[in-house]
Design a protein that fits this description.
This protein folds into two domains: 217 residues, Type I PLP-dependent aspartate aminotransferase-like (Major domain) (Aspartate Aminotransferase, domain 2, 3-Layer(aba) Sandwich); 86 residues, Aspartate Aminotransferase, domain 1 (Alpha-Beta Complex). The chain is an alpha/beta fold. A seven-stranded mixed β-sheet has the order 1-7-6-5-4-2-3, sandwiched between helices. A three-stranded antiparallel β-sheet has the order 8-9-10. Helices cover 41% and strands 17% of the residues. Helix 2 packs across helix 9. The radius of gyration is 21 Å and the shape is globular. Bound molecules: pyridoxal-5'-phosphate.
């Protein structure tokens, strides 16, 4: 990053940003890519560039694109979300999805896009489902967007090329700043037409960054070095989960631990503040009873033992 060659990305002449975008597009099997400030911005660009005012997108009730992005598509794009129940693997039942697609009639918003998220809460969305969803989308003339903030976790876990997943989607968002470990940024990858539109929207949103090569260099590093090592995060999550599952007072569903996330429930009331207890031991957590733990490249194997011991001590 220190040595990154920079230009002005608003003029499209930052060589490092261009290299990152080319690399991302190539890796995901898409024509083009655009570097964004965040995953939220990239998901928003995907919606703004594929839906018009008065269109709608179908999205899971608990999906990031619906629930955790401030209602951006509605606020900034006049695009209506149609949230739908989803199961623990991020699936919306396709039979019932059909009933959410609105007829071509001026009473209704025009249903345009179907959004999936993979991994979803660290769970892998089954490939057969994605394939069925694609057939469904084609039948109903919908585009498909993947919130792939953590899609490389899925690819590494399944031992497949990420293109085997992304090939079903018209657009894909990947976070460089999550498990991949870059400090900032995401990529939206899609057709050249969609990315050209996204570039205009990004500028409007204030996401046109000038000498952004400095942060793009971190993204290139992440894509070139930090994908296969996600398997280590998965292994550490499994060890963490096993350790915690043997701890009295912790409830955990081991089958839910597929990648880098561990969800636990603290069933025993110790009468103490768990956050403060952990903080005193240099462990930062959020939540009190339902806690999400995520392993990543700054967590060492030795940290896992320390964390498990801290939970054991707390509950004792
Ligand atoms: C983090 C995340 C995003 C958004 O990324 P930001 O960079 O935090 O805006 C989108 N989708 C999922 C599933 C995420 O985990």
């Amino acid at each position: 990053m220190y040595e990154a060659e920079v230009g002005d990305d608003v003029y499209g002449d930052d060589p490092t940003v261009n290299r990152l975008e080319d690399l991302g597009a190539e890796m995901l099997g898409k024509e083009a890519a655009i570097f964004t400030t965040s995953g939220t911005q990239a998901n928003l660009l995907a919606l703004l560039s594929q839906c018009e005012r008065g269109d709608e997108f179908i999205v899971g009730q608990h999906a990031h694109t619906y629930k955790y992005e401030g209602g951006g598509a509605a606020v900034l794009g006049s695009i209506q979300p149609q949230p739908v129940e989803m199961d623990e693997l991020g699936r919306m039942e396709l039979g019932s999805l059909r009933t959410y697609i609105k007829p071509d009639d001026y009473h209704f918003a025009r249903t345009k896009l179907l959004c999936l998220e993979n991994t979803y809460n660290g769970r892998i969305v089954p490939s057969e489902y994605i394939e069925q969803a694609k057939q469904f989308a084609d039948r109903h003339n919908l585009k498909m967007h993947l919130d792939g903030a953590r899609v490389f976790n899925t690819a590494v876990k399944l031992g497949i090329n990420v293109k085997e997943i992304t090939k079903y989607f018209d657009s894909v968002q990947i976070c460089l700043s999550k498990g991949l470990g870059a400090p900032v940024g995401s990529l939206l990858c899609s057709s050249k037409v969609v990315i050209d539109k996204a570039r205009r929207w990004r500028k409007m949103l204030g996401g046109g960054m000038r000498q952004a090569g400095i942060i793009a260099a971190g993204g290139i590093y992440a894509l070139e070095n930090n994908i296969q090592r996600l398997a280590e995060d998965h292994e550490k999550a499994r060890i963490l989960a096993e350790g915690l599952s043997k701890t009295d007072g912790v409830r955990i569903d081991m089958s839910s631990v597929e990648t880098n996330m561990v969800f636990i429930e603290i069933v025993k009331d110790t009468g103490r503040d768990i956050q403060r207890y952990m903080k005193e031991r240099n462990i930062l957590i959020t939540g009190h009873r339902h806690i999400r733990l995520v392993t990543h490249l700054d967590i060492e194997s030795s940290d896992i033992d320390i964390i498990v011991s801290a939970f054991k001590d707390y509950l004792r």
